Amino acid sequence: MSAVGEVSAGAATAVSGAAPAIATTGLTKRFRGGQLAVDDLGLVVPRGAVYGFLGPNGSGKTTTIRMLLGLVHPTQGGHQLLGVPMPNGSADVLPKVGSLVEGPAFYPQLSGRANLARIDAADRTADPFTAEERITAALERVGLIAARKKHYRAYSLGMKQRLAIAASLLQPRELIILDEPTNGLDPQGTREVRGLIREIATGGVTVLVSSHLLAEVEQICSHVGVMRTGRLVFQGTLEELRARGVARIEVRTTEVERAAEMFGKLGLADVRTSAGEVSAQLADQAPERICRELVYADIPVAGLSTPNPNLEDLFVGLTGEGFDVDG
């Protein structure tokens, strides 16, 4: 599977024949103090994908996003959005890109609708004659039409995030970039935003979601890129990421110690025991053979499974740090 900076053929194009929605070549950012925030980044986000851009806090995700949107100039390297080289193509491409970077900023004394109207009026590419229709459509899409007249300061955190996403949907978009869209939200707000991201993606829009939460990836993303101290250490599909893990076998039994001993005799590595369960690396052995040997040894088998490799363990191995698992 993919090594650092490589992209598999399957990950390169989610929409056959289309140029990637995002492609970077050697993208690097070193700040004046000498800090290397992003190092030789080779990111490829396929068209139509929901791409989870993952890494611990401080790994370079937000700096990368700010470079993609032209908010920060790279030290070296370049990138394309929607197949167009940047920054030369900014005037043509950026109107097709919606974004939420480092949290929403709105006028607290204005209603949700009034805030969107101000944002739309400031957009030189927006048609003022269709503003009312587009604002209403954006509010409906994020589920805020009933709260359109409520002051922004009275919005919950989840509603504020959804309003920010609505602002990115005032115009037709081909690419949406969201930086930590569920950061600070309660479980209900998190579910709302996840559902919205899924809904946006069903329309063929490419979505890049920056996050440090594994739940984001497992529940909404088709592809993933993992950052570590400014470098991209993996990118590909979720299935390709799981394929990097070591398959395990888990057996539920009342004879844990005897089952663990049998695992050792069968040459299984990394044998672990807990209350009523024993597990080990499966390697190239067939689960059916292991089950048969246990039964022949008169070791009761109440259940047997070969679970997918644990994503948390894979991420820790890639980054050297733990991730927040809960969403």
Primary descriptors:
327 residues; alpha/beta; Alpha-Beta Plaits; 2 domains; 6-stranded mixed sheet; 33% helix
Tell me the layout of helices and strands.
Blueprint: H1 9-12, E1 22-30, E2 36-41, E3 44-45, E4 50-54, H2 61-68, E5 76-81, E6 84-86, H3 90-93, E7 97-100, H4 112-121, H5 131-141, H6 157-168, E8 175-179, H7 187-202, E9 206-211, H8 214-220, E10 223-228, E11 231-237, H9 238-243, E12 248-252, H10 256-265, E13 272-274, E14 277-281, H11 287-296, E15 303-305, H12 311-319
Parallel strand pairs: 4-9, 4-10, 7-8, 8-9
Antiparallel strand pairs: 1-2, 1-3, 1-5, 5-6, 10-11, 12-14, 12-15, 13-14
Quick summary:
The protein is α/β, with parallel strands linked by helices. It has helices at 9-12, 61-68, 90-93, 112-121, 131-141, 157-168, 187-202, 214-220, 238-243, 256-265, 287-296, 311-319, and strands at 22-30, 36-41, 44-45, 50-54, 76-81, 84-86, 97-100, 175-179, 206-211, 223-228, 231-237, 248-252, 272-274, 277-281, 303-305.
